Amino acid sequence: MKRKLGVKEVFAILLGAIIGWGSFMLPGTKFLPNSGVVNTSIGLFIGTMTIIIIERSYRYMLQQNIDEGGEFSYILLFMGRKNAFIVGWFLFLAYLSLVPLNATAFPLVIDKLFPGALSFGYLYTVAGDAVYVGEVLVSTLIVLFFMALNLKGIKQSGKVQYIIVAALILCVLAVFGAMLFKADKAQFYENYVDGNRFEISQILQVVAITPFLFIGFDAIPQLVKDMDIGHKKASLMAVAALLIGMGCYILLNFATGLAYGPEEAAGLDWALGEGVLKNLGTAGFLLLVIALGSAVSGGINGFMICATKLMSSMGSQNILLPAFGRKTEDGILRNAIIIVSVIGIGACFLGREVVIWVVDMCSFGAAVVYFYVCLNTWRIGKERLVRAEAAAGMLFGLLFMILLIVPSSPAALSGPARIFLILWIIIGAVFFIRLAVVDRARESS
């Protein structure tokens, strides 16, 4: 049967999932204030290299004739249902939380174009963040649009994703080139190069969040039944997407640094946007808005695809409710698409600050998944190089987890993020008990 996605569509889904809201917002909120330009670039490079090493185990995974569900199906095949549930549960958290994160970024874009236009219908304040009907309405409409798009089939979704990502890359390059030409480079040198010190703690803060930054590289295992691409080519595409994603993060951080020093950037709602508006005017700012709009659109669509594929696979194995795995006659995952969309819309009502807390713990969930994939590859791999790469990936996965949960770590999760992580684990424990009961009943019968 002919596959539904070609090379361009698959690559676009990969890039759209990797380059999202964070590449435009983190330069002002995290990268420049905490690590500057040089240490951020080093941290991004080291983090990307670790993910590329982990990807080697993913390449081996693709050779094992896995089903939809990617990492979940891989662990299910070789390590059983209980371990597969743990992987699926943490991976689902990572995919699902990034849908509302990108959806709630749309009101920020509109607010920069039309200040205050969405600040109507005050609902409540959560963690210091006022929630308005206007903002929630825009986020909801965006999620509903991509829900409708995915209900038409993955081929249509892939075509739209390709257009979105092409616009994203072109606009990022144009904005960076213009900023490099127009901005005060002497001030940049004084702020970020002259007297710069290589601080391990600053570099590690960036390294620790690379699982969150690049979680989208694992879209390929979720699409394994929807594409006609060999595992070697798919692996090369994943590595290329990671390197392009790293480049975009570095370029956008550089562009923000060209406009502001670290203290100035930290004091602005959107340092990159303010800097582009100041240096390039309305035309440059519109290019940036198109890029950001493309990034968050690509993120919503990419992670909605991944989350529905994973939920369907877990449902079809009766690890989640079987209804989640049902398909229409056309092979569309209708139930899973609707459920992911409803949860994403519900999260938008919590306010952006709460969504960010949830996303903060995504890196931990992704690290757990990476560790499991590398562990299983190490267990079943025959070649010495495969096992060595898997062992290195296991160590990197453990390092990510330690950096995020050890309180004294420079990259430790915040208190609210830890609370949400504990809540997610408790909810997971309830489903885990259900799984044990179901399996026990099946064995006894």
What is the compact description of this entry?
The chain is mainly α. The chain has helices at 7-18, 21-35, 38-62, 71-79, 81-103, 106-113, 133-151, 154-182, 185-193, 200-208, 210-213, 219-222, 231-259, 262-266, 271-316, 334-348, 352-360, 362-380, 384-405, 415-444; strands at residues 122-126, 129-132. A two-stranded antiparallel sheet has the order 1-2.
Mean pLDDT score: 87
Q: What is the end-to-end distance? A: 37 Å
Number of helices: 20
Q: What fraction of residues sit in β-strands? A: under 5%
What string gives the helices and strands in order?
A: HHHHHHEEHHHHHHHHHHHHHH
The helix content, as a percent range, equals over 70%
Low-confidence stretches: none
Shape: globular
Beta-strand segment tally = 2
How are the strands of the biggest sheet laid out side by side?
Answer: 1-2
Based on secondary structure, the structural category is mainly alpha
Spatial extent as radius of gyration: 21 Å
Largest sheet, strands/sense/barrel? 2 strands, antiparallel
Oligomerization state of this entry?
single chain
Short key terms for the protein model shown above:
445 residues; globular; mainly alpha; 20 helices
Structural overview:
There is one protein chain. With 445 residues, this protein is mainly α. The chain is built from 20 helices and 2 strands. A two-stranded antiparallel sheet has the order 1-2. A hairpin with a 2-residue loop joins strand 1 and strand 2. The model has no long low-confidence stretch (mean pLDDT 87).
